Amino acid sequence: MTPFDFVAGRLEACSSLSRLEARGTVRIALRNAGLDASAGPRELAVVLRKVLPGELGARGIEAGAALCEDIARALAQQAFEAKTHEEGPEEIFRRLAGS
């Protein structure tokens, strides 16, 4: 599980947002912070505390800041696997081509 998946899953479980809405809302908050879904736990914690509460408020979620703080605390207690290797463009195209 990635930090993004953890945050989106907790948001879905603790709010009225559907899975798609939760994931999309987290992606929008990340994009507004200049990040993407590959962000690490520390970056996501900042987004949870600074950006996501506003996005939740815009979607009618009350007490979004408290919810985000709870998720940030839970995120800090999780152990995630470190990325060992990122594919370069050549590797991606080679894999897609099936060779």
Layout of secondary structure:
Layout: H1 3-14, H2 19-32, H3 41-50, H4 52-58, H5 64-76, H6 89-97
Number of domains: 1
Q: How many β-strand runs?
A: 0
Q: State the helical fraction.
A: 55-70%
The main sheet comes to: none
What sort of overall outline do the alpha carbons produce when their principal axes are compared? elongated
Order of helices and strands: HHHHHH
- The structural class is mainly alpha
Distance between the termini: 28 Å
Question: Can you describe this structure?
Answer:
The structure is a single chain. The chain contains six helices and no strands. It is mainly α and 99 residues long. It has one domain (3-97). The protein is elongated. The model has no long low-confidence stretch (mean pLDDT 90).
